[in-house]
Amino acid sequence: MSEQPQPETAAAHVxxxxxxxxxxxxxxxxxxxxxxxxxxxxxxxxxVKRSKKYYVHDEKGEAQIGDxxxxxxxxxxxxxxxxxxxxxxxx
Length: 91
Fold this sequence. Notes:
mainly beta, 48% strand, CATH 2.40.50.140, five-stranded mixed barrel
């Protein structure tokens, strides 16, 4: 039996990233990051702001309130945490 090579599928899954501000670091190894997206209104096309809070895993506990951070999608780490800290962009 000869094995046929599998056809190449799409590239490996590219994880989503977001940039936001740390609003809370009171939990151990967890941050709350607020991401603000500027999107056009579906009917009127005026640019409106949409905000969303993400629970982010911060293993070293290095981010502080007010920091601008980049977060990346990851496997579920707890009931609410699906993101992890990639980089602190500014203090």
